[in-house]
Amino acid sequence: MFRVTLTHLILIYMAVLLGILCVVWFIGECVRFRQDKKMRRSMVVCDICGHSFADPSTRELLTCPSCGRLNERGSVREI
Ligand SMILES: [Zn+2]
After folding, report:
1. What is the CA radius of gyration of the chain?
2. Cβ atoms of residues 43 and 52 within 8 Å
């Protein structure tokens, strides 16, 4: 059996706690990234009026709810 001092015990506790927090943060970031990617995939920006709207369907041609023009689904770029 090896001896553990109170200082080492506190350091081990803090290291384990920090490791758990890092894992939770990493999982949260992965989930947020996937949700953001999914939302960006469904966003469409009209070529004429610039109105952006979400359409969860998989159709390639979408009608703009603002001006009524047909738009092709494309990737929305981040600014
Ligand atoms: Zn439009």
Report:
1. 24
2. yes
What is the tens place of the pLDDT at every residue in 20-70? 999 999 999 999 999 988 888 888 889 899 999 988 888 889 999 999 999
68 torsion bin: left (phi>0), alpha (psi -120 to 50), beta (else): left
CA of 67 to the centre of ligand 1 (A): 4
Q: Residue 11: which residues within 8 A CB-CB, separation 6 or more?
A: none
CA 39 / ligand 1 centre spacing (Å): 19
Would you call 66 helix, strand, or coil by DSSP?
coil
59, 71 Cβ separation under 8 angstroms: no
Question: Measured in angstroms, how far is the CA atom of residue 62 from the centroid of ligand 1?
Answer: 10
Q: Which helix (H) or strand (E) holds 15?
A: helix 6-42
